[in-house]
UniProtKB/TrEMBL annotation:
HTH arsR-type domain location: 1-93
Organism: Paractinoplanes brasiliensis
InterPro entries reported for this sequence: ArsR-like_HTH, HTH_ArsR_DNA-bd_dom, WH-like_DNA-bd_sf, WH_DNA-bd_sf
Protein name: ArsR family transcriptional regulator
GO molecular function term, any single one: DNA-binding transcription factor activity
Listed PANTHER family: SLL0088 PROTEIN (PTHR38600:SF2), TRANSCRIPTIONAL REGULATORY PROTEIN (PTHR38600)
Length: 107
């Protein structure tokens, strides 16, 4: 059950286009919150809510040095989604294989 709680948190975090944009940008490397926020037409307090959501889902880590908070993507957390998708793909491939056998054996 804990596995699905992690998956739920990651999927909720990725459900928003701003947060997906942040994840996409951080895939290129670490960035400060100020630099990340500049790419989106929202206020800094609103942007910080997105950062907190991503951080609480474990998708990013932040560290503060002086007055600058830097964000880093936690690529390992994306594995939760990859594993779930692989599991679903396997289930549906098995089902379509059974359907194919059923149809071809009936002919």
């Amino acid at each position: 059950m804990a596995k699905y709680q992690e998956l739920d948190a990651v999927l909720v975090a990725l459900a928003d286009p701003t947060r997906r944009g942040v994840v996409r940008r951080l895939g290129e490397g670490p960035a400060s919150v100020g630099d990340l926020a500049g790419a989106f037409p929202i206020t800094l307090p609103s942007f910080l809510k997105h950062v907190r959501t991503l951080e609480s889902a474990g998708l990013i880590r932040t560290a503060k040095t002086g007055r600058v908070r830097t964000c880093v993507l936690n690529r390992e957390r994306l594995a939760v989604v990859e594993d779930w998708l692989a599991e679903q793909r396997s289930v549906w491939e098995q089902r379509t294989d059974r359907l194919e056998r059923f149809v071809t054996e009936e002919e």
